[in-house]
Amino acid sequence: MTNTDPIRRLGVYDWGTHPCPASALSDELAGSDLEVDVCDLDTVDEFDGVVTVYHHDEFLNAVDWVHTIRSGYDDFPLDAYEERGVIVTNSTGIAGDLVAESAIGLLCMLAKGFHRFRDAQAEHEWGRLPWRRPFELGESTACIVGLGQIGSSVAARAGVLGMDVTGVDVRPVSTLGLDRIHDVETLTDAVRDARFVVLTTPLNDATHGLVDAEVLAAMRDDAFVVNVSRGAIVDEDALEAALDTGEIAGAALDVFETEPLPEGSPLWDMEEVIVTPHAAAQSVTYGERVARLIETNVGRFDHGAEPWNRVV
């Protein structure tokens, strides 16, 4: 596809309800000049472009443009798309503050033990935590692994709460006001003093299994892992072992190697583990944000400009 080809008919692939229904996004786009409708794999070839959550092989030979409403695109065979001349764009940038708010909420829950009160409420039990269990976020340290839009947004919010925030990234970052930025090659050193290790880095070959047994062993025994990025960044077996032996204090996990989290996973039943269903970016505004990005890119195609967030 060339950058001058117009998009007139746009299919919204019916992915269900994550993170917003396809029909809701279709409604958000209804006021534009586009002809928009919900589609399935049998009808996708009737459209110039398709909006989706995940890759489907049928897209490769059906449309000129594929937009994923996620930031991640690790399941998309980019070489195949490039070979067929199909443009792929993602939604990086629309959910940074949404995910950051969720991450800060998880930090608050872990620090104050709110998750344990919720568990007690379900059993109609009244009781406080041991007096030394709750602690102050403002007196705590956080190491943010990955300082892109989400990570920088988490860092800014954590700093406002008075936390001592450090970062880890593959490049020097000087605009966040952080005292210390570590190279990813020194991750074990970066996490040693952190009460919270917050994972906001993209999943790729370099970050797959990045948080392994060695990294977990380097963490404080009162430290927590918070993962709002991708499950495969953490070696889940090593994490389960570290939690089971008390090598670390707990975790808040929004993402997992296998989703939904299998029923037999021990993570479900660990008292100091918070499990959320890959919902950190979920918000009533998510569909509106995606729609505005799509409309912008349709306009850029019309004017022969490069689309925003082009992956391939």
Notes on the protein architecture:
This protein is of the alpha/beta class and 312 residues long. It has two domains: 9-94 and 283-302, 3-Layer(aba) Sandwich (Rossmann fold); 96-275, 3-Layer(aba) Sandwich (Rossmann fold). Helix content is 28%, strand content 16%. The protein contains nine helices and twelve strands. It has helices at 22-28, 78-83, 96-112, 114-122, 149-160, 187-190, 213-218, 236-244, 286-302; strands spanning 9-13, 35-39, 49-52, 65-68, 87-89, 141-145, 164-169, 181-183, 196-199, 224-227, 250-253, 273-275. A seven-stranded parallel β-sheet has the order 8-7-6-9-10-11-12. Helix 1 packs across helix 9. The longest helix is centred in the middle third of the chain and has 17 residues, at 96-112. The mean pLDDT is 94. Residues 104-280 form the D-isomer specific 2-hydroxyacid dehydrogenase NAD-binding domain. Residues 58-311 form the D-isomer specific 2-hydroxyacid dehydrogenase catalytic domain. Keywords: NAD, Oxidoreductase. One of its GO terms (molecular function) is NAD binding.
Keywords:
9 helices, 5-stranded parallel beta sheet, 7-stranded parallel beta sheet, 312 residues, single chain, Rossmann fold, alpha/beta, elongated, 2 domains, 12 strands
What's the arrangement of secondary structure elements?
Layout: E1 9-13, H1 22-28, E2 35-39, E3 49-52, E4 65-68, H2 78-83, E5 87-89, H3 96-112, H4 114-122, E6 141-145, H5 149-160, E7 164-169, E8 181-183, H6 187-190, E9 196-199, H7 213-218, E10 224-227, H8 236-244, E11 250-253, E12 273-275, H9 286-302
Parallel strand pairs: 1-2, 1-3, 3-4, 4-5, 6-7, 6-9, 7-8, 9-10, 10-11, 11-12
Helix pairs in contact: 1-9, 3-5
